Amino acid sequence: MSSSTSDADLPDDSVLDSLRGAVDPLEPRHESDPSQPTDLKTQVIRFFLTGVLSAVVDYGLLQLMMAFGVDYGLAKALSFVAGTLTAYSLNRRWTFQAEPSRARFLVTMALYAVMFGVQWGLFMLLTPWFLGMDWSPFWATTAAYVVAQGVATVTNFVVQRTVIFRVR
Fold first, then answer.
1. pTM of the model
2. How far apart are CA 71 and CA 62, in angstroms?
3. pLDDT for the residue numbered 50
4. Is residue 74 left, alpha or beta, with left meaning phi > 0 and alpha meaning psi from -120 to 50?
5. Average pLDDT in the chain
6. Nearest 5 degrees, angle CA 81-CA 87-CA 117?
7. Which of 58, 62, 91, 130 lies in disulfide reach of 95, CB 3.0 to 4.6 Å?
8. Which residues, at least 6 apart from 92, have a Cβ–Cβ distance to it below 8 Å?
9. Sign (positive/negative) of CA torsion 81, 82, 87, 93?
10. What pLDDT was estimated at residue 26?
11. Distance from C-alpha of 37 to C-alpha of 2, rounded to nearest angstrom
């Protein structure tokens, strides 16, 4: 009976609850302590580590799908989604230690949609350019990935820190 009493004390966020299992299956409802904000240095380090892991997921799936014959444009789109969900989950919980929020989730997904356009656009522009210089598909897509990812990483950190996960 006490668990239903404590559940009643928690804010109702039915949209987030419906997304929780698909986006963040291990999500506790309130894991952060707003009175203990993370400093900028720690956030930068955590954002970098999260970015490395997310990039491994993104880039690894990109190359894996291409190895199985998936077109590089489609492979990049699908790998971006996997990397993005990894990044959001880790950045919200670990880097910025933010509470679950439907508004934050939607704003972050809007940012990622814009970053998808930037990343995918740069990737699709640069890959044929590198291929035209007789680079192998592996090196052409790798170089295009690095440039596109670099642009998105800097933009993501600035927007997430200053807008989405405001410093408390």
1. 0.66
2. 10
3. 92
4. alpha
5. 79
6. 45
7. 91
8. 24, 98, 100, 104, 108, 165
9. positive
10. 41
11. 30
